[in-house]
Structure formats: structure tokens, C-alpha cells
Amino acid sequence: MDLEVRHLRVVCAIAEAGSLTRAAVSLHMTQPGLSAQLRRIEVMLGGTIFERGQAGAVPTPFGELVLTRARAILPGIDDLLADTARATRPRGAPDRVRLGSVGAPLLADLVLAVRGVLPAAEVSTRCQYSPSPLLDDLAAGRLEAAVVGDNPGHELPPHAGVVLCPLVTEPVFALLPGTHPLAAEEEVSLNQLLEEDWAMPHPDSDRTREYWATVFAMMGRQPHTPYEAEGRQLIEIVRAGLAVSLCQATFIEVPGIAVRPLAGTPLWYRHVLAWHRDGPLAVHGDEIVRRVGEGYLATCAATPAYARWRERHPVRRGCPTGSAEPKTATAPAARHGAPPGAGRTTSHVPSRAG
């Protein structure tokens, strides 16, 4: 077997995810299939790339060498693929639009917006836990648009040719068992929450855990986190009364779960729409952002805890902690392919649990 580009992507995906199980999900493979492929790659290269154990998949010194070279090679290959794709792309409306998203409430609205401006196009979607691979795919022409997000002081890095359009900055809320005493309160103190056991998502390149840890450190506290989980697994741990966590303000309560604002709003998250400056959606950017913003407001109204919070915290223009009102692409910094990072606010929001 000869070494192929896809093998380098597999190795980088495992390093990014920190475990074969998580990498298999992102690569749309089974865990046994990915494990077998990794063994073949290691045999071909002549060394062990990852040590696998309870801590996940940790690169060996040999693996660090492989990863360093792979990460140096792949951007050039991606640039070549992106340039040739753009050079051969037919003029006019595309017949296929590929969208990506992190765990956020905006993907369905983005799909509907794209269908509204390009009704003849076939729309497909895929999701990632972290925005980094989505931005890489946008830069390389493997996606046309994506829903991403970041946190204050931990903003998304610029990617060549990728337009980042901030849509809304919203507060992070507490995620509680429905039977927890704090669920009876209108809002929850973060200090109170830090007295509990926590469930948290795996740390990765979206820097959410890093942002939370920074805020906790400013309080002189760090949570006890015996549970590391994502998505449905995290929800079930909280529902069982084993832990508390954080979630996006638009998280819809399910039986056994309570969502409550954090007193003083100490944590924020920013939803961002992204597309390639030269991609087929660039000309429709303003309209897509407008439609997604309208969908977001409808989601807010349908989320009781967040709707009540918004009533108590009307939008204050120029507030240094940001706004909980969508910023449409008609804002000067967001129009017509503004440079990556233009128009950023200083606040954002969270959690991949939602």
C-alpha cells in the first residue's frame, strides 16, 4: 500500500479528536475500521504513531514527526485542490451546496436560507464538534458555508479567503438536572454551580474549555469534572442528576433537564456564519445572513428561558459585552467580503452541549 493524502488526513483527524472513537465519527467511519486503517498506516511508515489508552490517542515522538510533516504538506495540497476547483467551476448558480456546522441552532436556518436563494441547488450538510476543520474545508473549497462560533478573547483565527460574519453574541446558560434545587431559581450563580460535579465536552481546538477555565480562574475556582462527554451522552449524565454543565441559551429543555441563566452573565458565545470570499454563496451573503438572523429570532422566542432573559435584558447598542440581537450583513464591517475578523464583538458564547 502506498501512502496517500487521505492517510495523512486520518492521522491528523485522530490527533485533532484525541481519540479514535471521536475521529471515527468526524471521518464517517466505524471505530474498528479506523483502528485497522491506522495500523496499516503505522506498518507502512514503520513506527507507532499513537499510544492508545484511557487518556485517548496520544502521539508518540515518531507520531509527532509524522504529524509535523503532514500538517506542513496538507495545506499546500488543499490550496491546490481549491484553486483547481475554482478554476474549473462552471459559471452561474451551483448545482450542489455543501454546508457545515458546529453544535448550534443555526444549521437548519442556513439550509433554508440557501434553498431560498438557490432553489435548484442540492444542499448537503455535515457537522463537527470544532470549527477548525470546518474553516479548513471552507478555505480548501470542500464546503461553501458553515456555522461556527467562538468565545471572548479566543476568537477564530483568520483563514485565507474565508469571510467570517458575526451573527449574534448570546449568554451561556446553566444546564441542570430537573430535580436540582437550583432549577427552582430564575437564575443561577456560577459560584453555586461550581460547588457541584460537572460534565464537560472534550477539550479541542475550538478553545471552549480554555475560555471557561480562564473565567473560572478569575473567580479563583475550577470545577470538579469527573465526567467528559458530548451531546446526548452529556445530557443523559445531567438528566441522571450526576452533574451540571453549561449550554447555549437556545438549548431547548427536554424532560428531566432545566436550563437557567447565569447571574451576571459571566460567560458568552458568538455565533458566526462563514463562507469563501470567492465561493458561489458570496454574492448572496447579505440575504443569507438576513434569513438566518430571522430564524434565530424565531428560535429565541420558542426557548422559554432565553425568551425571559431577553425580556429582562433589552438590547443596548454599543454594550462592550456584545449584543443578544443578530447583526445582519448590512453592517459596514460585514458587507461584501469583509476581511476575516472584521466587525467582531468582544463577547461570545458557549457550549457544545447544546
Automatic annotation (TrEMBL):
**Which Pfam families does the UniProt entry name for this protein?**
HTH_1, LysR_substrate
Compositionally biased tracts (Low complexity):
328-345
Instruction: Indicate the segments forming the HTH lysR-type domain, all copies.
Output: 1-60
Keywords in alphabetical order: DNA-binding, Transcription, Transcription regulation
| InterPro entries per record | LysR_HTH_N, LysR_subst-bd, WH-like_DNA-bd_sf, WH_DNA-bd_sf
UniProt region (Disordered), positions on chain: 315-354
Instruction: Tell me the Gene3D superfamilies matching this sequence.
Output: Periplasmic binding protein-like II, Winged helix-like DNA-binding domain superfamily/Winged helix DNA-binding domain
Q: Does the keyword Plastid apply?
A: no
- Keyword Transcription recorded: yes
Q: Which family does it belong to?
A: Belongs to the LysR transcriptional regulatory family.
Task: Tell me what this protein is called.
Answer: LysR family transcriptional regulator
